[in-house]
Amino acid sequence: MYIKNVSIALLDQAAAIAQVVVTDAEPTNKNGTRFRVRLGLLPSRGMTKKWQAHSASYNFGKPPRKTHGVCFHGFLAFFVALAKVAPNFEARVNPTWNRGKPFIYTKDTTMAEYGRVGAINIGPPVRPIRVDECCACDE
Fold first, then answer.
1. Sign of CA dihedral 63, 68, 74, 75
2. Which of 8, 25, 59, 137 is the most exposed place for a label (fewest CB within 10 A)?
3. Each residue of 26-51: pLDDT tens digit?
C-alpha cells in the first residue's frame, strides 16, 4: 500500500498502537512524506498471532491455512491509529483481487471503506468467503 502525508516515526507509532509492525517502508518521493508500506505481525509464541490472516480457500473441509499476513481487522486497527497520529494521511491499497481499482483510506473514509471492502467476496462462487472472514483473530 502507499501512504502519504506521514513520516517513518508516525508509521511506527501507529503500528505500535495497532499492535502490528511496519516491515517495509520505502520512501517514494524526495520529501519523505510518501511511502510504500508493508505491515507484519508481532512476534508471538502463541498458536495464533493477533491480527493473523488465513487463506481464502476452505481446503475441502479442512481448517483454513494461517498466513504470515495481517488480517483485514489488523489493517483497520492500523488505519484508525494512523488517523490519530497523522490526521491528514491518505492510504491507497490496491489488492490483486480488486482488478486495479485502489481503495483509498483517509481519516474520514476509513470506516466507510472498511464496510465496503469487508463485504467483497474473494472466494469462488461455489464457496464464497468475504474479505472480513479471512482471519484467525477474535474480531
1. negative
2. 59
3. 999 988 889 999 888 877 655 556 66
